[in-house]
Batch of 3 targets.
Target 1
Amino acid sequence: MAGIHRSAWVLVLLSAALQILIFPLPGLYWLSWLAFAPLIVALLRTRTPPTLQLKTSPHLLPARPWQGFLLGYMSGILWFAGTCYWVFETMHQYGGLSHLVAFVVLLAFCCYVGLYHGIFGFLIALTVGRSSSLRALAAAPFLWVAVELARTRITGFPWNLLGTVQVDNVPLTRVATIAGVYGLSFEIMLVNTALAAAFVVRKEKRKFLLIASLGAAVVLQAGRWLSLPPAATDHNALLVQQNIPISHGTPWTREYFEGTLRDLSWISTKPPVVSSDQKFGLIVWPESPAPFFSNDPFYLRALAGVAQQTHAWMISGAIGIDSEHSTSGQEPRAYNSALLVTPEGQVGARYDKVHLVPFGEYVPFRGMLPFMDMLTKEVGDFERGKSRIPFQAGDEKIGTFICYESIFPDEVRQFANHGAQVLVNTSNDGWYGDSGAYAQHLQQTRMRAVENSRWLLSATNTGVTASIDPFGRVTARAERKMRTVLVASYMLSAETTFYTRHGDWFAFLCVIISLVAILIAQFSKPKASTTNVGRTGTGI
């Protein structure tokens, strides 16, 4: 297709399949060290030289920029389809779309976010320029991180950043405390690039590069099996997993609403399988599909009752209502919020979700896409919050963020940078059903604990509810899809990591290096070896 040798397409398909396998589910993380090597080889051995038009010729040249884009784009579309397939079920079951329309939405989504893989392929081809492929190999890890940063900051969908697959590799994840998850992505791509180089260089160098790259992968991966002591704890929280079903449009009756609140209050004040002398300083109710409004007296009385009986601070997901607008006759503004309730039963503070889910919590470009309003009918059409200041719960500063916000490294680290001593993520993963999305979400949430060296309490509606230590390890978790509680031990921390203080500095450095590499490639003179394909194939 389009002058691209068929072997390049085979390598792209192989790379896409490997990329899918490294993320949960199934989570074959060790394949991450070689998952991108076939794609890089495809980009550097793409087309037959003009003087050797035989399809069987082994001497293939690097992709032209548009060819690099096509190869990368195909890889990206397939990868997102294989890892974010849950978008289809969410749109069909909870968005009210037909099977056909839900499939079209999934396809459009994959075609959109897959552009970033395409951009990576395009940039690799640009970096080759008129000179040696060696420069493109050296630039590849920097280019990948630059593209990940663009996906985070521009598109706002940093789902499954490459570095998250190594969250269980505690020694290796120390890099994330300095450079964030992007530092891990860089390391993984560095090994992939070295492995790819073995297949595009002269044969006499191939054995050395294969041994070096595979040896590096084994050494770097070995840290996952090191046994490290548990992190110290001195506080207890009670995480309530509500397991409230998503209603599919069925209205809540008052009886069902009150019964649900009674059940949650009972399980919070008299938690099962917990000793009567065990004390909790914090109780967390997650984000949920229940119509819990911040101005509903019945709901607030239930929260106050739990807080007063347990003498604990409470955090609870709710639909925040802007009382100023509701009392002035204007349409009240609604927010996806978390309330902080004092041990005396008063609402002490409210956090309004800043980063909303497009087409789930708001409709972007509403004037241009009015028909997409149907996608917010189950969740709501929310306003954006404006502050990431931690809750002050007595002597504790608690950084609370909601669901989807946990996938944004720089946004979560702002809570710790503002003094949060422990992090709390309230979430409703019921939208994902039984797909791998809940496991992917947990994996990304764990990386936020690593980057900021903070205990993180993940309170979810249907699971996984978990306590996560500063090394990203799950120290306790509740069974999914059941109404239960989890005793989550943790410790406060006031120290900040380099990443917490300085944010995405490394990713921006990669952007600068990438731009320099592209400029050098475009203005460099071609080497004679690039035409001597009979000896080198790619000029390396």
Target 2
Amino acid sequence: MLHRGRKATPIVMVLLGMSCLAVQDLRAERLTIIMGGENGLEWRDGGGTVAALIQTGPTQVEISNTPGNVIEFDAGGRAGWLSPQKADETLNIALGLLDRGGRLNAPTILSRDIRANLIFMVDDDPTTAFERKTAPGATQVNSLGVIMDFDLGARFGVERIQFFPRNAHPNFPAPDFPFQNDYLRGFELLLNDGSEETQVANQPVLTTVKLEPENEEPIVELNIPPQYVRFIRLKSQTTVGFEIAEFRVFASGFVPRADYLSNIFDFGELALWGRIRWEEEHFGVERLSRLLLSSRSGWDDTPLEFTRIDRDSEANVPWQEGAVVTTAAGDRFDLDAVADVQEALDVFHALPFDERNRISLTRDDYASLTAASKGVVRDDLVAWSRWSPPYNSAAGTVIAENIGDDQVGVPILSPGPRRYFQLKVEFSSEGLESARALGSLAFTVSTPPVAERIVGEVVPRQVELGVPVSFTYAVLPTKMRRGVDLGFDIFEIATPVRSEGVETIEVVHADGRIETADFTGVDLSILPVQDASGQFAVEAVEERRLRVRFPTITESDLEADRVAVVKIRFKCRVLRFGTTFTGTARNSGTDDLGQRVIGGNAADLGAADDDLTPLGVADPNDLAVKVPLAGSKLMINVVAQPHPFSPNGDGVNDVTRIHYDLTRLVGAAPITVRVFDLAGNLVRTLFSGAQGGGSFALEWDGSDAAGKKAPPGIYLFRVDLDTDAKGEAIVGVVEMVY
């Protein structure tokens, strides 16, 4: 389901002195795509318009949204909900093993048609059977050691296994085949749960659950405690011939792993990604199950790269035989004629995507190759991003009624702008009766972007821990499509702590014009603050965000040597190694979602800029700032200000603020901030809870736990931090006077 919204409102900015500047009438279309639930796109249909491809082997690919086919649609009778498949104890799950990608095998039998005969054991037909019997007039068959392997295609909570010959089971009558006495007279049954830790050299390590050398039952039924099983081996322990008409497996509970892959969404042009949110519920014990949702984005309509084996080099190459290309420099290449295959691959991967796709092997091309000519199928990590880290669930805050609200949820992490988008859902469980269910899912996109591509970098890239430093953040739009891309006049920087000041903002336009604003020393306590022209402004200085405005960038083209660059100089502290200053460009006059910059060489920023890559080349390290690893303090800059303070109600120094910086923390840790008198008596607990890395300040107004003013004097404050690795405590002094 697509909710479309279009804004076409001219934006007028009111400037100082009541003058006005009209901004061009730009349009941005925002779309909210809803899958599942009662009103969204059907999960069964895949959502997008380009079929999902899954790789089932080095050279095998199939179209499917449900790898393994263990997803339950309309889970629990609720329309539009997904969950892992829950086994029906009365249904034989062995019947669907081939559809799930499972296999049948008899490794001790060399006959070419053995697999076709093995299928008779899982076809639900009482008149067919897998036979190891001596035919009249034939050589005696020795059945000892015959192995029958069953791969269920997925892990199930198996609790019962049954097998029998024709005409033995009352529910499978076969009077024309009176072979009920041709049952297996001795057997061993072995199982494996299919987990990675139980595999050696990609082969399951099987454990015997039943050894019966003298079986006297035509219908063998083995009941076991419910347990995860994927691989089953039945081994004959008799020389007497036998047959098996049906091999039946029964299970209970949810499968421990199930995946769903959406179709590929094609937005027709480059799109920016907004937020993603979804309804989620759990069955059984909540901590025993997980739902992991990831995304990826691409420039073309297939995330897979098909290859063929080059006849001369025997290398895997992804282009059609005889492909001829012309590079951006005008050089003409017959890719098959290039002596160095790696050089040909480099040329291929450097081609513009339209040209690259023109000569790439398609799925149909690949299918027409001989088996000996087929190379491997692999992820195309040039045209497509890797799967994002799993998104954090906003469980409990997303319901059917607010699923369309694009302010709810978490930001999409896949790179943009790009044209194509795909989702993956992974269900997992550690308990048979525990699972997650997925209801409505929604995500928001907007088109067109503010630019085709924006590169950003920050210097310096190594600073002292917790010390204020003047950073320069450069922003380079390497390509803006005239008449298509929105342009931008807003830039937001994700800062590790509140910025301590903005110094200068400089805009170099594509035509060479330079405009600058100086905010050095300007009080940023009341925002926004504009320069005299009204074209530059500091709009927000928050705990982890800095937002500035400048004259709109509407043109930039690195290839044409007409580039625009924005340089923002600001002061900030860094509290942990590898802090990334993420940046987002926006257009204040449109309804766009904001475009994150790519780390890379954006400008020559002087001696502190150690870039060796050409201008415009991506490098994620260009947005990361390091601090020395030496030292082990987790708390720094612990101080009370003002000192002394006087809570007498005159509005001057009525409170003191206990400041502290938490450094090097990966996650939140317990912290307590308390005030004591000189006798060691607790006066007030200002905070007790968990905090992550950052800069913090707690106010004390001089009152005790009961809200009464404490007497004047000298007090001690204590900050205690407790992590898994160590604990730290810092004590300071604060004086209260009247």
Target 3
Amino acid sequence: SSMQGYGGKILTVDVGSGTQQVEEFDAAFARAYLGGNGFAAKLCYDRIPPGIDPFDPRNLVVFATGPITDSVIPGNIRNCVAGKSPLNGLFFDSTFGGRFAGTQRHTGFDAIAITGTSPEPVYLVVDEGGVRLTPAKDLWGKPTLQTAQTILDREGWDSDVVSIGPAGERRVRIAALAHYWKNREAFGARGGLAAVLGSKQVKAVVVRGNRKAQFADPEALKALVNETREALKKGTSNLHVFGTPNLVKGINAIGGLGFFNNRFEYSPDAEQVGGERYKAEFHKKDTTCNKCPVACGKTFEVKEGEYAGTVWKMPEYETIYAFGPMLGNLDPASLIKAEELCDQLGLDTISMGVTIAFVLECLERGFLTEREVGVPVGWGKHQAVHRLVEMTARREGFGDVLAEGSARLADRLGHEARKFLHAVKSLEMPAHSARALKGMSIGYATGTRGGSHHDARPTAQYAPDFDRRNPEGKAAWAIRSQNFTAVDDSLVLCRFTSERGGYGMYLNENYVRMINAATGWDLDLAELERIGERICALERAFNVREGVSRKDDTLPWRVQHEPIPDGPSKGTFCPPEELDRMLEEYYELRGWSKDGIPTPEKLRALGLEFAIQR
């Protein structure tokens, strides 16, 4: 296929039967769903039977690239991975960086869809000719880095690997994927998609190929990069110097950083785990995704104390929050260790830390006892926390309970305990305040993934001129942001280079130019907005088919009933009546029913007739 911006092919492999199928898609399909997120949503909607358990062989795991993957656009090396999440039984997609996406691009397959369940552990090797299933019994149980290195030694270091750890193998619902390239790590995929691979007995996916990506107008792509080069440099300079730990200071300063299971959102001591301290005491070197000028990655080294000798990637801002402030812990070295443990075992740091935060509050309030937990753990006790992480990955003792995620534990403990659950749609909440940022209040409630900061985005809300306390106009803002992220994740482009890099935090002419230059189309901005809206509506249709409606578009009890007790955002929260007003407005603007169901008229207008619920 000679389509510009695409390989034009989708590879489906059934790991149960070992059969594979290659389908070509046309420009109309590409123009409707764009790539990445959009392709994954369409494949999942069409192929995953409603109501199945996420560990059913018929669930899919889709790895998808987009029309600018492997181009000159900075931050283009991201993969979208999607499927039905074992945390909540809903559509879930996630993106990860590194080098895998570019290498997948060289296979000629824009999407790789994995279905079925293998009778024994395997890894998949995908190249231009299709897929080969390779026995992986010897890798089962191995940590992620060793797995990647063993496979690369076998398959060649020009290949790229994404693998699961012991957590994914044991179907831990908060398991995550790991991707290493040149021994640098780019972690990927919340929502337990690694557990779905584990249920399929797939230890790893390997890509390699020599098919060069073709773009319609390479000169126009270069011109766009040149025009935005200065803005990218300026907008990402802090990330280049400090990486994401830089966010600790600014977010704590507005009073929106969760402490003690989000009871508090400010501390004068937060900078003990902030960017400056990490840079000064632990920085070893900068790392980067393939060909990205930002280099927001860092390798840290602990030189003294109980974690001396630990050398690992820096804990991202989200890991710092989940294993630091949320657990009443401000020991910076312990967070590097927590990152290493989670990465090696294949666990999502946000869900893991926030689930433990829920446990600590339940212990404090007497909903759980130390005997049940089996480890003498409490606020600030990081060694005991690390023990719980290891137990979770192996489902041993109380780890078997933690492995199910915090929402299932809350259901087990009952009504009173549920008030302290920090999750939306069973996905643990990240480090951007649902109370201090009104756009996040409505954004989390309505986003496909619930407790994810990648549907509606926090970034714009931290700007001094953004009215973050006022619910007015936030429904419209959330829609704009969600349409943008759906497109961004279909391109598939990094948030840092897109939002901070001079292209913009919302859909605009830069993205129109980018897509047209890659594909040779004549898209305009209205059509691009419609693509974003189409993808959001299709994800919603998937979730509606699984029973989602207005009742599920809600926020944690604490967010709705307890104002922030102190700090710069003191007094802010999102009471039920305010959330209801924002929901009404949101559904109306989206063209969904009052119960949050996309109407037949709206689905028809978006070319999604097939998704009308009959």
